[in-house]
Design goal:
The protein is α+β, with helices and mostly antiparallel strands and 236 residues long. The protein has seven helices and eight strands; from the N terminus they run E-H-H-E-E-E-E-E-E-H-E-H-H-H-H. Helix 1 runs antiparallel to helix 2, helix 4 crosses helix 5 and helix 5 packs antiparallel against helix 7. The chain starts with a strand and ends with a helix.
Length: 236
Amino acid sequence: MKTFVIKEDGINSMMKDLYIRGSLAATAIFIFLFAMTYFRPNRNLDETGIIILIIIFASITTWFFSIAIAKTRRLFESFSLTFDGNLITRDQYDTPTITLLRTEITEIIKYKKGSFKIKGGSKYDVILVPKQIAEGHQLEELLKQIVPVVEKEREISILQSLTMIGVVIAFFALYETTKNKFVVFTCGAILILATIFHLLNTHKSKNIDYSSKRNVWLTILTLISIGLGIYRRLSN
């Protein structure tokens, strides 16, 4: 039996990356919300109200971010990948355990920066191994004994990620600012479908922790908000 864990300095590196990405994401959301509030036609808030809204948003974001950082560190610290005979098992705190038979593995991908994806028979039977795994070379040799390891570039490039985020923001901005009822309905329907797709994937994924799955009420509130917004604006 052989167990692989994440390197201690790798965890610190992950936290640094998370801080940077989280800060950039929070800044982007802040700018978007500020622009949507300030430039929205017939806005109900004056400059003082907008400043108060910004302070509230910044406080809530900081609180959520601190909780997310602590949880993410615990998830990474508890990560283990165990080879035991014919079984490969990924264990992680507060996350569904994934166990794959060697014979079930259909593909193993190694990405350019050193992370691995081990695919089982179902699209949800996937083990994601971060690049900060200790003894990565030995792990790769073990994986090569199962199926050939395919080397690929980044699964989703930064440009693709930014494009997807930009498309979602564009749809939301159009939904919030347009007075055309057809555009309101179309953009709202797309946002609802995208939210439902995200909800289903989160529920079925074995690589998302249980506490995140339990926060499904946030997604449901988003659906209700969009649905009520469509109804209100189409009724006027």
